Hints:
Layout: H1 4-32, H2 37-61, H3 63-69, H4 73-93, H5 101-111, H6 114-117, H7 125-134, H8 145-152, H9 156-165
Amino acid sequence: MPSISSTITRQIVTPVTIVLFVVSTVTGIMLLLHWNGNLVRFSHEWLSVGFSAIGLWHLARNWTAFLQYFKRNVALSAFVVSVVGSLVFTAMTGTPASTGGPGAMMRAVANAPLATVAPVFGLDPEKAIQALKAANIEAQPGESLSAIGTRAGMNAVGVANILTAAKQPRPAS
């Protein structure tokens, strides 16, 4: 008769691991492709934590077998290459969180109401709304560039580009 531990592993942990792997993979691909990212981001992050916890439990449970891999050069090399590759990839593609600089300025403009940021583009709020309407984009003075862009299928930078192109000429002094 199998032990309770092996029964739990086979009948509960293994199916849960398979489900969490599939969900993490599918939601990860959705995030990569920017397809319904806001819909799956929270579940991807937390279910991946669950998947990682089960992976760590599996590693602890099979620690002796895991250590045997380090006695084989090919497995040890694969382990080192994958860790170093992951760190290099993260260093090359990661962006540090920043509270200042041009990114912070653009985030502030993107999240402020159109009526507030229109002068940044040399427009009054009505002219900004007209410029967006000319581009077949509906907007209200209280909406942010991000909200306007999301509804129009673009990001805040796309909306800002339209407003920049519509800038009023300065009167001669």
